[in-house]
Amino acid sequence: NNKPTMIFGLILLILHGNLINGRPNIVLIFADDMGYGDLHSYGHPTQEYGAIDDLAAEGVRFTQWYSADSLCTPSRAALLTGSLPIRSGMVGPRRVLHVDDAGGLPKNETTIAEALREQGYSTGMVGKWHLGKCMNVLCPIITQSTPQFSLDKMKTKCFLTRNTSIIQQPIVPETMTQQIVDDVKYYITKNKQGPFFLYMSLPQLHSAMMCNPQFCNKSKRGIYGDNLNEMAWAVGEVVRLLRQLQIDRNTLVLFISDNGPALELCFHGGSSGFLKGGKATTWDGGIRIPAIAWWPGKIQPGINTQVLSSMDVFPTLLQLAGGNGRNNGNLDGKSIADLLLGNHDTEIHKILFHYCSDRLMAVRFGKYKIHYHTQPLPRYGDNCPDGNPIEDLITGLGCYENTTTHKPPLIYNIETDPGETHLLDPSNQQNVLEEVEARIKAHKATIVPVKSQLGNSREILKPCCNPPTCVC
């Protein structure tokens, strides 16, 4: 009489084994150029409430989460490797990889996908890559794009790939998000027994603005709001599927932006809220980003004010997967697994180093933000008649040219002055400056020079699915 019960119990153990041993499925959703003040849940007054805000309400919303860089390529390299971009060579005067670059994330760099595969996870990626030639295990499942500003220019420079084959060139912007969602659903459904890791890297909210007709001209905020609403729909589709498959309570969803918003695109750019600066700068508006963690039944809803970094994702996921994420000295990131589960409230990072390419620009040290060099703040003026941008203008793109060196450095108390508007007197902060200088010296001693992967462009390397037309 006990045999059917025992067999049924065994089936339950197999089906829900990941839940029992605590190894979650993981969906890492990465937004592009979303500012700290863009979401309804982060205070935007006219942005519509959506599925991302649901994640924030049901999970934990972070208020002091920093990107490792203020531009796409280096911030993505840091996310996937858990280390500063300067360590992997994902730095250079041009700062981001172009479609005809010979370089890419070096093969000897271990990505979070590779680390999770060693823990028995299946891994996949759908969305924007922007790390050059595919040399890592994240590449086999990929829809790729490298957005530019002009929609016509973007169509010719962007392409979609699956595995190693180009399947669409030029892209059809209006259907790209739907294609990404379809691929995500396919991957999750196929791997629902888990454990799986899926990196969903969305093209929104990078210029140029594009949307499916069902989302266009709907937002009070205009075209940028339309794009954000389409992104929110995509996130909602993923969460809906997790619930439908009854794996939501065994799945961690992380939603993070790569860097701050392109403020100089005006109505086509985002909002950094009350923060100073935006994309390409090391002011907080360029590197302090929205971040949300959602795991029903495991993560308690709330707000977390710890100073954290996107580099923490690697060791955190590795620890949750059963690997050594807590004491991995090869990473700049630190595990926040215990913090996510409500078991840790002590300081994670004493100091964060903020680079522009290979130049250390600023540090976050406790409650202080210290700037040694700064880029110019965004200028709007002539670029935005009626709020519509003429060109893809980023004033603070340079790391050496058009920058200002500060001796003594600029010092702000970020806790009382998050907008970096009220300078502290450096003569009253000598102890702080001396400790920071010692930490910078120790940090720089760990930096091993490596070859830059950026800026080696060759026309022949431009992807083309059907030469010479490059149309498929």
TrEMBL record:
Requisite cofactors: Ca(2+)
InterPro entries the UniProt entry points to: Alkaline_phosphatase_core_sf (IPR017850), Sulfatase (IPR050738), Sulfatase_CS (IPR024607), Sulfatase_N (IPR000917)
GO molecular function: arylsulfatase activity; metal ion binding
Domain Sulfatase N-terminal: 24-322
Extent of the signal sequence: 1-22
Keyword Cytoplasm attached: no
Keywords of this entry: Calcium, Hydrolase, Metal-binding, Signal
PANTHER family: ARYLSULFATASE, ARYLSULFATASE FAMILY MEMBER
Record family assignment: Belongs to the sulfatase family.
Protein name (database record): Sulfatase N-terminal domain-containing protein
Lineage: Eukaryota, Metazoa, Chordata, Tunicata, Ascidiacea
